[in-house]
Amino acid sequence: MKDIILSLVAAALVIAPSARAQCPDYLDYSQQKHQPYSSGKYQLSYMRPEPACRTFNSSIVEDTIKDMESVIKDPDLYRLFQNSFPNSLDTAVKWKGVAANNSNEELTFLITGDINAMWLRDSANQMQSYLPLVTANSSLSSLASLYRGVINLQARYILEAPFCNSFQPPVESGIGPSKNQDTPDDFTPAVSTNIAFECKYELDSLAAFLELSTDYYEATNDIDFFRNFQWVDAINTIIATTESLLGGTYSSNGSVNTLPYTWQRTTTSATETLDNSGRGNPVQANTGLIRSAFRPSDDSTIYQLYIPANMMFSRYLDSASKIMANIGNQRNLANHMHNFSGRIRDAITKHAIVNHPTYGSIYAFEVDGYGSQNIMDDANIPSLLSAPFLGYLDQNDKVYQNTRKMILSKDNSYFMRGPVINAVGGPHAGYGQAWPMASIIRIFTTNDDQEIRNALQEIVSSTDGLGLIHESINSFDAHKWTRQWFSWANGLFGQCLLDLKARKPGVLGASFQ
Ligand SMILES: *[C@@H]1O[C@H](CO)[C@@H](O)[C@H](O)[C@H]1NC(C)=O
Ligand SMILES: *[C@@H]1O[C@H](CO)[C@@H](O)[C@H](O)[C@H]1NC(C)=O
Ligand SMILES: *[C@@H]1O[C@H](CO)[C@@H](O)[C@H](O)[C@H]1NC(C)=O
Ligand SMILES: *[C@@H]1O[C@H](CO)[C@@H](O)[C@H](O)[C@H]1NC(C)=O
Ligand SMILES: *[C@@H]1O[C@H](CO)[C@@H](O)[C@H](O)[C@H]1NC(C)=O
């Protein structure tokens, strides 16, 4: 909820273009119900803004929404799709333009939703919702152009501040920076608040750039794009940054190594700061795993060798190495990326597969290289549950299946159970708060029709009538939810139903009344 208060202040700083002066602030709009309600028993609100107030128009997205009406038979489930799938385009494309010093360099400032800042992780995932509809297209009004704009702006951000997780509008947009209402960060290396909104170093933020790049490349084969702007430089920065975080806490003679990144904040919440003067808990040397100070929930790690982000980074570093190889004159860098990816995979196998008394061999969530293991999963992606969704391993992988059974049981300390919704949560929203995002990933990672139907039933029945995917919902009380405007989770739900259309059309023909 803190995030919401923060964004109220942030939103007030944005100068609305005059054409949209009459448009309601979606922060408020998304908290009220709007007619016409869906015709099922949940009577879900219509949540799309008026056409004139939408932040990006795409005819292929509109066609897809219409097509799905005949596929999704349940009226409430269809309404949820209709509201959620276009949410990032409807509400979050805060600015789209070109770089001041290169009119061919497209830029897209894509905000997370209720906070007027662009997260590397969220924006990569927000774009991924539309990936099935992306084809090579040089038009400035295409989804491909939106993608290129996000890649170019992320490259700029990474070059400016590789340890930061969320960023301010580019100067070209004329939109002023938002103020982060939390206690100012005390961190090294310093970054201007005109550039970064927050500087929590999260390995998955850098992996997100590799994922975003891979997604665009595989959909379009547009290799020239990767040659023309700052993509190669951004990759070099990512490699240098992650390699600087391979080190342990102590050198071989016992001296304390200097860390390239430290972060502290005055706070009452342990997940909002790092102990040992901003350096975190000790990490063993030479594991081959990359440290992450924070998780994708923006909460600090307990053990910095955060496994889901290492999986994601390894998987997308390898696919990005293929882009690098095709660029032409970057063979050595491409080989280096491929090799680095393989070494991380080997390190995960060596350090993160642990023996659980009930489930046998499973993946640990976090380790420290000294033998300490954190056995749990958190809802945010990358999670252990999402490992096949990320393409790191096959869904039928034995260790994954053991891990999945543990995650979706009372033996995962952050699996929330109750009459409203049963799903993984996490410390970010707290005890009892289940995250629909984790239910969506559960659907993506199973072939069991009954498991899919149960998850869809819980999702469609727990929106408190608002017809949007919330960040978290109390597993005993559907009225207690967090974040009414969380674009990533909404897009992900749309992406999930498109995936079901291809994989399990029968489930979409079912009733959820
Ligand atoms: C989207 O289309 C509507 C008309 O249907 C228009 O009023 C609006 O300005 C368009 N939005 C953008 C960002 O171009
Ligand atoms: C263009 O401007 C951006 C942002 O100010 C900067 O990061 C980039 O290096 C510049 N590019 C060139 C080619 O000068
Ligand atoms: C490219 O995108 C534009 C805008 O969405 C669309 O009108 C056009 O049909 C697309 N072209 C191709 C070849 O898909
Ligand atoms: C201990 O190792 C560190 C890092 O290799 C080195 O900088 C330092 O000089 C060494 N100190 C001693 C006393 O050997
Ligand atoms: C990476 O390169 C090193 C040095 O050439 C080699 O010994 C190692 O086997 C490679 N690792 C992987 C996983 O490819």
From TrEMBL:
Coiled coil: none annotated. One of its GO terms (biological process) is carbohydrate metabolic process. Residues 1-21 form the signal peptide. It comes from the Eukaryota. GO terms for molecular function: catalytic activity. Keywords: Signal. InterPro entries: 6-hairpin_glycosidase_sf (IPR008928), 6hp_glycosidase-like_sf (IPR012341), GH125 (IPR008313). This is Meiotically up-regulated protein.
